C-alpha cells in the first residue's frame, strides 16, 4: 500500500481533522515539554507561580508605591497581577511558539506529522502555567477582601482563548521566519520588552489620554482591560474595545497560519 503525503491547502478543514487524528501526539508533546521544563528543579511547578508573583512585588513597590501610578481604585497588587497573568501567558507563548520548530529540528527532519502540533503544544503548556499562577490571584483577592465579579468568571475562558489565538497567530508568523532567519531569537526578547510598555499592564489605559487609540491596536490591551473590568467589577466592560481585539486577533491568526502553511513544505530542507 502506497501512501502519498501532499501539502494541504492553507486554512483547509483537513488540517483540523489531521490534528485531531494526531491528538495523542499533541498530548505527548505537551506532557514532554512540561516534564522537561521542571525536570531536576528544586521547587518544580512552583516556578510558574514564583515568576509572576515576584514581578508583581517589584512592580507594586516601584510603580505602585514610589511612582504612584493609579490603579482605578483597586489595590495595586491585584490590579497589576491581573495584567501580568495574561501578559505573561501571551509573551511566554509567543517566545515558545516562535522557537518551537528550531527547538525540535531533529524531529521535523526525520518523520512526518502535522507541523502545527509543535507550536500548539508549546501554547498548551503555558495554559497550565496560567492556571497554576492564577492561584496567587485568588490569594490576593482573599487577602484584600476583594470578591471576583461573576461576569469575570464567565468571561475568563473567552479572554484566555483570545490570548491563545493572538500568541499562536503571531508565534506562527515568527516561527515561519525563524526557520530561515535565526535573527528572530535575538530580536524577539527586545520586542517583547518594548511591547510590555504599550500594553496597560502596569498602568490603566486611561492614563494614555488622547493616545489611547494606539493601545487599542494591541489586542492584549482589550483583553487585559476586559479582564480587570469583568473580574474586579469596578467599571463596565468596553465591548467595542474587546471586539476590536477579537478582530485584530483573528486577522493575526489567519496571517500566521497562511505564512506557516506557505513555508511548511520547505521546513525540513532549510531548518
TrEMBL record:
InterPro entries: ABC2_TM (IPR013525), ABC2_TM_bact-type (IPR047817)
Residue intervals of the ABC transmembrane type-2 domain: 43-263
Residues annotated as transmembrane: 42-63, 78-102, 123-146, 152-174, 186-203, 239-260
GO cellular component entries: plasma membrane
Major subcellular site: membrane
GO biological process, alphabetically ordered: lipopolysaccharide transport
Localization per Swiss-Prot or TrEMBL: Cell inner membrane; Cell membrane
Pfam families assigned: ABC2_membrane (PF01061)
Annotated keywords: Cell inner membrane, Cell membrane, Membrane, Transmembrane, Transmembrane helix, Transport
Protein topology in the membrane: Multi-pass membrane protein
MF-aspect GO terms: ABC-type transporter activity
Family from the record: Belongs to the ABC-2 integral membrane protein family.
Protein name (Swiss-Prot/TrEMBL): Transport permease protein
Phylogenetic classification of the source organism: Bacteria, Candidatus Azamiibacteriota
